[in-house]
Amino acid sequence: MKPVAFVDDYLPYFRGVPDDIHMALIIREPNGTPNIGDELKNVSSSHSDLLEFAKWWIHRTPNIK
């Protein structure tokens, strides 16, 4: 299996994801979030929720079926 995207709302889970996989971070509430720091620069995109990411992904990659 060769994933093209990894989507999660917890930044530490992105550690070790290969660079050729799109890393999409779902933004959490600003208070008490672990999604801060230098690791944010490794994320390919960020989105307010999974639906926003899905719509963005479909628009960005219309040939994927």
Biggest sheet architecture:
3 strands, parallel
From the structure provided, what is the oligomeric state, counting identical versus distinct chains?
single chain
Question: How many helices?
Answer: 1
Which of globular, elongated, flat, extended, rod-shaped describes the shape?
A: globular
Uncertain parts: none
Across the major sheet, the strand order is 1-2-3
Task: State the end-to-end distance.
Answer: 16 Å
What is the number of E strands?
A: 3
**Radius of gyration, rounded?**
12 Å
Write the H/E string, N to C: EEEH
Strand content: 15-25%
Broad structural category: alpha/beta
Structurally, how many domains make up the residues?
1
Task: Tell me, rounded to a whole number, the average pLDDT.
Answer: 89
Helix content: 10-25%
List the keywords.
65 residues; alpha/beta; three-stranded parallel sheet; 1 helix; 3 strands; globular
